[in-house]
Design brief:
six-stranded antiparallel beta barrel; 1 helix; mainly beta
């Protein structure tokens, strides 16, 4: 799954939703009983608890203007929410996960591509 837009920012190239298929939907806990048996409790995990990791990987490079816009959006987002839009046009309400280093920016070490940046974003569904 890829994301093409964050808030009002159209991405230069789509970012990969790297943990799209890794979010658990059921939480389970096993408890030992007095007589040696095991009781398993299962509970659905609320979709609001899902972490979302977005990454440039090999083909989601962002130009300088998009990188600057994303950095400013993250910097000014404490206590606010925004949206992401997937390539399937699904709009999802999110917040930047400041507790998990919400943005990482890395420049490409290539003269021809030096105006592009690799981006990693950590978000949480709200």
């Amino acid at each position: 799954m890829k994301v093409k837009k964050i808030g009002d920012i159209e991405l230069t190239y789509n970012l990969w939703w790297t943990n799209y298929n890794q979010n658990q939907t059921v939480k389970a806990e096993a408890i030992n009983t007095i007589d040696g048996g095991v009781v398993v409790f299962e509970q659905a995990v609320a979709t609001t608890a899902k972490n979302i990791s977005l990454s440039s990987m090999d083909d989601g490079w962002q130009d300088m203007a998009t990188k600057d816009n994303l950095v400013n959006l993250v910097k000014n987002s404490i206590g606010t929410t925004t949206t992401i839009t997937t390539t399937d046009d699904e709009v999802i309400d999110v917040r930047f996960a400041h507790e998990r280093n919400s943005i990482t920016v890395e420049s490409l070490n290539n003269v021809k591509l030096s105006k592009y940046y690799l981006i990693k974003l950590e978000l949480a569904r709200v």
